[in-house]
């Protein structure tokens, strides 16, 4: 029976102000099939660090997350989103809410304990992937709705200009889209632009 191909270790970037713990954490992470690809502090340029090392997940170990670190994480989340796990001693509800709004996938009180890290990471990755899929589907739905509105507006223009039915106007626009190898929404935008140029 052929052996199953081993999965690659998760690439982890650690944000921790306690530099003396890094070697210990590096060894501990290796034992749970994680590779520590970068270590940085909370006051560093996190966005640049993430772009440079391209981690699968970001671990943040901090006593109490302040505004600066949360803003940095929010920038990372909006620019190069990926799962982020925060270990903290701060159990304030407002802090937890701000961290979540900044893009943190899992907020763990009581600090970083290696024995709990891997299942927490796996849960954070699963949650991140789930919400990423929901965001993609929501964006697609919004785009489709916007395109539908543009097409309907252009269709009404064609109906009025050519004095034709809705069906005829739609078929006319669809044929033009096919003949010009364009999306129907692109043709609709051109119809609307021409209407603005020519006037009513």
Key terms for this structure?
200 residues; five-stranded parallel β-sheet; 14% strand; Arc Repressor Mutant, subunit A; alpha/beta; 58% helix; Rossmann fold; 7 helices
Summarize the structure in words.
The chain is built from 7 helices and 5 strands; from the N terminus they run E-H-E-H-E-H-E-H-E-H-H-H. The chain has 200 residues and is an alpha/beta fold. The chain has a 5-stranded parallel beta sheet, sandwiched between helices. Strand 1 (10-16), helix 1 (22-30) and strand 2 form a beta-alpha-beta unit. The radius of gyration is 26 Å and the shape is elongated. The model is unreliable at 1-5 (pLDDT under 50).
Question: β content, as a range?
Answer: 5-15%
Structural class: alpha/beta
Q: Please name the CATH topology of the largest domain.
A: Rossmann fold
Regions with little confidence, pLDDT below 50 for 5+ residues: 1-5
For this structure, what is the CATH class of the largest domain?
Alpha Beta
- What is the spatial order of strands in the main beta sheet? 2-1-3-4-5
What would you give as the CATH superfamily of the largest domain? Answer: Response regulator
Named CATH architecture of the largest domain: 3-Layer(aba) Sandwich
Number of helices: 7
Which sheet architecture does the biggest sheet show? 5 strands, parallel
Helix content: 55-70%
The total beta strand count reads: 5
Q: Globular, elongated, flat, extended or rod-shaped: what is the shape?
A: elongated
Q: What is the string of SSEs from the N terminus onward?
A: EHEHEHEHEHHH
Rg, rounded, reads 26 Å
> What gap, in angstroms, lies between the N and C termini?
75 Å
Average pLDDT, all residues = 87
Number of domains: 2
């Amino acid at each position: 029976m052929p052996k199953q191909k081993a999965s690659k270790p998760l690439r982890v970037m650690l944000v921790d102000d306690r530099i003396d713990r890094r070697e210990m954490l590096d060894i501990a992470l290796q034992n749970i099939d994680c590779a520590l690809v970068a270590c940085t502090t909370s006051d560093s340029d996190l966005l640049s660090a993430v772009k440079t090392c391209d981690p699968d997940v970001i671990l943040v170990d901090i006593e109490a997350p302040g505004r600066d670190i949360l803003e940095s994480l929010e920038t990372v989340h909006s620019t190069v989103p990926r799962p982020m796990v925060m270990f903290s001693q701060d159990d304030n509800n407002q802090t937890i809410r701000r961290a979540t709004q900044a893009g943190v996938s899992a907020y763990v009180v009581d600090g970083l304990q290696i024995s709990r890290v891997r299942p927490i990471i796996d849960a954070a990755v699963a949650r991140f992937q789930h919400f990423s899929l929901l965001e993609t589907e929501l964006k697609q739905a919004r785009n489709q709705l916007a395109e539908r509105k543009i097409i309907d507006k252009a269709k009404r223009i064609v109906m009025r200009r050519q004095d034709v039915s809705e069906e005829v106007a739609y078929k006319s626009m669809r044929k033009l889209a096919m003949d010009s190898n364009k999306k129907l929404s692109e043709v609709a935008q051109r119809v609307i632009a021409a209407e603005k140029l020519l006037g009513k």
